[in-house]
Amino acid sequence: MNRISSYKTAVFSWISVSILFFSSYAPLCVIFAIKDNFCNTLFCIFLLICALLSVIFLIVFLYSIKSMNTNIITVESASSKDGEILSYVVTYLLPFLGVDLSKPEDIKSMLALFFVLYIIYTRSQMIQVNPMLSILQYSIFEVTDTQGITRSIISKKKFFRKGDSITFASPANNVCLEV
Description:
Layout: H1 3-24, H2 26-35, H3 41-64, E1 71-80, H4 88-93, H5 104-122, H6 131-135, E2 139-145, E3 150-155, E4 165-172, E5 175-178
Helix pairs in contact: 1-3, 2-3
C-alpha cells in the first residue's frame, strides 16, 4: 500500500470513528436543550443542529459503507454486546446533576469531558456502543470466525448462529458493519 492510499485509509477511519462518536451524543444534545428549557436559546439551537447533523452523517455513513469492499466470514461463535449501551447511562445522567448551560464554566467543563470521552472511545473498542445505532435498530455482536479471529460486528440482525456467513465492510479498525 503506498503512502497516499495509507493516508486516505487513515483519514477515512478517523472520519468513520468521529461520526460514530458524535452521533452517539445526539440524544444527549437534545436532552441538554430540553433541560435548559431553551433559556440559552443560541446554545440550544447549536446543540439541536449538532444533534441533527450528526444523525444525518451517521445515516449517510451507514448507507455509504454498503459500497465498500467487503469480507465474508463464517461464524464460530457470537454474543450480543447490546447490554454495553448501559455504560452510556452514566454519561446521560450528567445533564441532571446540576449542569447549568447559562454558565460558561459549566459549558467549558462539559466540552472538556466530551473531549476526554472522544479520546477514550475512539482508541478503545467502545466506539460501536452508540444509542443512535440502537434507535436505528442495529445490534452489536462480538463474533469469532472459524479462523479464530474475533470482531465486533454492527448488524440489523438480532442474532447469529454457528455456521452463519456474515458479509461485512470495515471502514475503521474497530468498526465492522454487516452489509
